Amino acid sequence: MKLKLTATLLLAASVAFAQQNEVNRFQQYRPIWENGTLAQKDSLATALLGEVKGYNTEQEYRTTMNLLYALGHEEDQKQLGVQAKKKFPKGSLTRDAFVSDVFYKAETSEAKEKAYKELTKKWPQKNFVGEELSYDYVLANLAGTYAKEGNATKAVSYLSEMKERFWRGNGYLPVAQTLLAAGDTTAAAPLLKTAMDDAYYYISLPEEQKDNKARFASMGYASSMSAYVGILVNQGKHAEALDLVEKALVVAPEQADGLASVYYKLLINANRKLEAFNILRGLYAKGQFGVEDDLKTLYTALNGSLQGYESFNTGLKNELLVAIREHIKEKETFKPAPAFELLNLKGETVSLASLKGKVVVLDFWATWCQPCIRSFPGMQAAQTAYENDDDVQFLFINTWERDKEYKKNVVSFIEKNKYPFEVLYDDQKDAETGQVMAAKFGVNGIPAKFVIDKEGNIRYFLTGSTPNVDYIKMEMKELIEAAKKPYKKG
Description:
Layout (H helix, E strand, L loop, with lengths): L1 H27 L1 H6 L2 H14 L6 H13 L3 H14 L4 H12 L5 H14 L9 H17 L3 H8 L5 H17 L3 H19 L8 H7 L2 H14 L3 H14 L4 H14 L3 H13 L6 H12 L5 H22 L1 E5 L4 E4 L4 E3 L7 E7 L4 H16 L6 E7 L7 H12 L5 E3 L11 H4 L7 E5 L4 E7 L5 H16 L6
Parallel strand pairs: 4-5, 5-6
Antiparallel strand pairs: 1-8, 2-3, 2-6, 4-7, 7-8
Helix pairs in contact: 1-4, 4-5, 6-7, 7-8, 8-9, 8-10, 9-10, 10-11, 10-12, 11-12, 11-13, 13-14, 13-15, 14-15, 15-16, 16-17, 18-22, 19-22
C-alpha cells in the first residue's frame, strides 16, 4: 500500500510539473498570439507544426493546439487534434471529445447517465491523476439534469461522487436551487449546507494558505448562505438564521453586500430596526431601488411619519450619483476606436464609420458568459431610456463563442429573452493581424463595455458588471451624457 501511494504521488507531481512547463511555454509566445502581425503568427504556427514529430506527451500536443487556436489557425489545430487522438487513443483529448460530442449533447438524464458510465469505463478517473475537476464538471451536469427532471435521489447521489472540494459548491448550489424551486426543501438543505461549509472552510484558512482555489471557493459563500438561511426562515428558525449570518460577517466581511438583503430582513424580525434601516440605506444608496418599500416602512417606524422622506431619498440618490461619477472617472480614456465592419443578425453590415455623429455603446458578450447575461436587463433598461435619442446607438458585440453553431445559439438566446438589441457577430478576422474585433479593442475579459463619442474616440472602457438594473441604468446615463460633451483632459 505504501509503495502504491508513493507511486501515485510521484505521478501526480510529474504531471503537475509537465503541465506547468507547458503553461510557461504557452505564455512564452503571448506577445505574438496576442499582438503579433499575421505574418508573425503564420511563421510561429509553421514552426510549431514542425516540432510535432518530436512530441512524446499528450500535453505537448494540447499546448500546441491551444497555441494554434490562439494564432487563428483553427484548421491546423483540428488536424493536430486528430493526430494526437490517434497517438493517444485513451488520453484526455479523446476523453474530452467524448464528453463534448456525446455526454453534453445527450438530452435526457438516462442518456447522460449512459454516456457517463461509458466515460468512466473507457477513461477511468484513476488514469488521470490531477484531473478530477474534468469529471466533476460531468457529474454536476448529470446531477443538474436529474434535478430538473424531479429525481432528487439520483441528483444527490451523483453529486456525492464529486472530488474537488473547492469546486463542488458550483454543482451543489444549482441543484439545490432547482430542488427548492420544486418545493423539495428536505433534499436541498443538506446540499446548501455542504456548499456553505465548504466555502467557509476556505474563507477561514490563514491568509498565507489562500490560493486561487480558496479564493474561488469563497465566492459562493453569500449565495449558498442566503439560500440556506431562507430555508431556516421558512421553518421559523429566525434566531438560528441571524446567528449564521452574523458569524459569516465576522469571518468574511467582504461578503456583506451579498448577504445584505437577507440580513436586513432578519434584523427587522429581531426588532433591530435601526440596524436594518442602516443596511437598507446602504443598499438603496448603491442603486438597489427595489428595497424602497421596506426603507419607507422602517423610516416611518423610526421617525413616526414619512415627513422628510423625500429629501432623505434625494440625498441617497445624490450619494449614488457622486459614487458613480467617481467610478467612471477612473475608467476615462481618450483614443481613436478601431474601425470595424461586422454583420448583424439579419446579415446586414454595420460599420463604426456609418455611426459617426452618434455616441456608440459597445457591449462585448457571449452566450456562455453569465456576468454578461446578468447585466442584460440593466443594459436593456439603459437602451430603452435612449430609444428616442437618435444620437445614441447601442451595439451588442457577440464574441469568443465556443460552439460551431454559435449563430443559431445567439439568435435563439436573443429571441427567447425578447431583447431588442442590435447584435453584431465578432467573427471577422483582420487581414493583417488575424485578430477579431475584441482583440483590436484590447478586450481581455468579458463583459467589456466601451463608450465611443461622436467623433469616433473611445471615452470610457469598463470591464465586469452588476445585475443591479437601476445602477446600470444610472451609470450608462452618466457615461453617455459625458461622451456627448467635448473631451477635456483631466
